[in-house]
Amino acid sequence: MKQLLVRGLVLSAIYLLVLTSLRLGDVIVALALGFASAAALRPEHGRADATPAPEAARQLLATAVEMVRGSWQVVRFCLGRPCSPGFVEVPRDGRSRRAVARWTILTGVAPGEVVVDVEEEDDPERMLIHVIESAEPDRVRARHRPHAEVETPGEDDDA
Length: 159
What we know:
single chain, mainly alpha, 3 strands
């Protein structure tokens, strides 16, 4: 119950931040949407699908590093540094659908790289990203290699 309350309040706060409003009607709508979303997205079997705190912290740190690296690369590109934008295929490396979704979001947050395609039918082991500097695709692939992806049994079942 405490977890539901915290999640509902966090989702409500995010809604209000995006809306940039604290009017009473907006707060009521935010609370209703926040608690409804928290209840609807509540895991069926406790926290079995949640990312452990150390792994979540590692992912946040890695994302922050990628954001700084990507911002620097974009600044250099905008200032006229020659580069070769293009597509790079990244292997899925056995990641579950949930891990791929997490990777897609975290990759999209950092500037300079955009996830273009994640194949599931023709070539289920291929993910395609567009990068500012594609001259060294092996270096890009190495950066996107999963370090210690935490997988839980049956993760793909509900994704």
